[in-house]
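ok so I'm stuck.
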Amino acid sequence: MKSIKMTYKKIYSMIYNLMFSNKLRRRRKILACLALGAGIMVGTVILLINYFNPDVYFLYWGPWDNTTCHYIETDVTLPRADAREFNPPAKSIFFHETSCSGTLNSRQACSVESAARAHPDWQINVLFAAPVTHYALKTGAISVIKNLTNIKLTRVHIGKYAKGTPLESMVSGGALNRTRWRISHSSDVLRYLSLYKFGGVYLDLDVVVVKSFDSLEKNWGARAADIWVEAGAISFSRDEVGRELADAAIT
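replied:
not stuck anymore, here's the structure
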């Protein structure tokens, strides 16, 4: 009997150990699969966010830029940049204000004024993507710079401004609303549209001009470092070289 009991105990112990070890192995396999799956998901999200912007806006959980002001059509305070009457001369400098502020702060106004004073025989164009009120024109920084005779303030409707250009389908297709950087990407589009349509110089609203551009070549870009050129200050002329550069930049 003792031998039979010992045999049963051994068999029971073997079965228990076998079942426990199988459960442990299964648990380890499940945990390993879960960890691998989580790693793949995190890696995929990081890859998409960093290398496939801007059309992966659904992976971004922060606030999006509000650019609904760009599509307001009822304002009539400023002349329209998409009208036929807007035909800047070859010696033109363009600034674009693409936030929904509808005004300029003192630093931005300083940038515009510096360009105007350094270039009295150039036209300085400030294009607002948002409506500008009568109150904004009478107060603050805009009221100071608008009295300079070579500064022209206009309202730009990006959809109409892009018509007849290689960017028309991209803008009308809503690409600028499928990005979390709507303000800056609208600015990128508008600067190249202006230079493509009219030629001239584009400057960011934080660029202060201390010397005339007349001594520079007709086509140039500001160097940000030894290996690349920034788009914060660029010039495309109306000659053949400038047109080739404009076409290459916008297509």
